[in-house]
Amino acid sequence: MLATMEAEMVRGIKFVGIPVGDQDAALKFYTESLGLKVVTDQPFTEKQRWIELMIPGADTGIALFTPEGHEKRIGEFPSISFWCEDVFATADALKKKGVEFTKEPAAESWGSAAVFKDPDGNQFVLSSNGRKKQGAGT
Q: Residue 13: what pLDDT?
């Protein structure tokens, strides 16, 4: 009975959609700059492909897709937060790959955070649970 109950429960989030205007530019950014891997890249509608990416080592991925009628969401601030071990080191590495940050890494009472944006202007939080002080090294 327990196995049946577990099978009927929601087990996680498969992917989160990110609205993008240029799927090729977005695909290049998310794979080359952020290091995500392509799971699916196939035709979906006349105008768009279904592009699903996985985050190495994570159960949740992202889909680079804008549903028809939702184009105004491109360039917004989706409520998505990526996490890493060290926000300061990761932000430094991403900047070297050309990623633009709109909020520099800062130590907060709950951990560290920064905000970066993709080529469409979508902004995302990059956070870690550990508290690192700016300039503290590793």
A: 86
List the beta bridge partners of residue 79.
none
Low-confidence ranges of the chain (pLDDT < 50): 131-138
Q: What span, in angstroms and rounded, lies between the C-alpha atoms of 95 and 76?
A: 21
Q: What is the pLDDT of residue 35?
A: 97
Residue count of the chain, please give it: 138
pLDDT per position as a tens digit, 11-29 = 888 999 999 999 999 999 9
Q: What is the CATH number of domain 2-128?
A: 3.10.180.10
**Spatial distance between the Cα atoms of 51 and 46, rounded to a whole number of angstroms:** 14
Is 44 in contact with 108 (CB distance < 8 Å)? no
Domain ranges, ordered by start, for the chain: 2-128
Angstrom CA distances, 102 to 6, 38, 54, 121, stand at 42, 26, 24, 10
DSSP strands (E only) in 44-122: 49-54, 61-64, 81-83, 100-108, 111-117
